[in-house]
Amino acid sequence: MAQRDPDDDPLDVYLRAADRARQEGVDTAPAALGTADAAGHPSVRVVLLRQVDRRGFVFYTNYGSRKARELVANPHAALCQHWPTLEEQIRVEGSVEGVTPAESDAYFAGRPRDSQIGAWASDQSQDLESRGVLERRYAEVEARFGEAAIERPPFWGGFRIVPERIEFWYGRPGRLHERRLFVRTADGWKASWLYP
């Protein structure tokens, strides 16, 4: 049986790129996330990728947030990571699924305590009367839990983008950039090169 070329699997390529970037001091967590509502109206924001593995790209949010509502209505999304000091960009497109409650619990348990309290206090993306209201809610949550462990709110958890397309962009002189595209097929990943 022939050995698989690691350059034929975009997730292997991504994981090696992220390791290389981290060694160069690049924060690989931020990514621009594009979603669209049921009518196809797009929106984009930066999220923090908290896990990337062979299953996909994971981030966490309040289920009442705009992005979560859009992902439920239209379970497809796009990510873009740009690492300017390395002249590299990675674009991911795919379907979206929820992570398991156990995965969400494990990630939430590892968050800083103030972030755990903030998750309970915030009605993410909803109208806020004043900063004082948020600060009062934070204080109320803090008092309610005291020194006890803070469990994950039932309205908070993770989403995974299961990639269907991954494109790697490498900056080159004269704007003759390299673009390598991977598209998932029934037989695996199909790789091709694109003009810059």
In short:
The protein has 196 residues and is an alpha+beta fold. It contains five helices and nine strands, in the order αββββαββαααβββ.
Describe it:
Strands 1, 2, 3, 4, 5, 6, 7, 8 and 9 form a nine-stranded antiparallel β-sheet that branches. 21% of the residues are buried. The mean pLDDT is 95. This protein has a domain at 6-101 and 156-194: Electron Transport, Fmn-binding Protein, Chain A (Pnp Oxidase, Chain A, Roll), CATH 2.30.110. The protein has helices spanning 10-23, 66-73, 101-109, 113-121, 131-145, and strands at 30-36, 42-48, 51-53, 56-62, 76-83, 88-98, 156-170, 178-185, 188-194. The chain is elongated, with a radius of gyration of 19 Å. Helix 4 crosses helix 5. It contains five helices and nine strands. By secondary structure, the protein is α+β, with helices and mostly antiparallel strands.
Key terms for this structure?
9-stranded antiparallel beta sheet; alpha+beta; 9 strands; Pnp Oxidase, Chain A; single chain; elongated
Judged by helices, strands and strand pairing, the structural class is alpha+beta
Q: How confident overall, as mean pLDDT?
A: 95
Shape, principal axes of CA atoms: elongated
Total strand segments: 9
Q: Write the H/E string, N to C.
A: HEEEEHEEHHHEEE
CATH class of the domain at 6-101 and 156-194 equals Mainly Beta
CATH superfamily of the domain at 6-101 and 156-194: Electron Transport, Fmn-binding Protein, Chain A
CATH hierarchy: architecture of the domain at 6-101 and 156-194: Roll
Largest sheet data: 9 strands, antiparallel
Helicity, as a percent range: 25-40%
CATH-defined topology of the domain at 6-101 and 156-194: Pnp Oxidase, Chain A
Radius of gyration: 19 Å
The first-to-last residue Cα distance is 36 Å
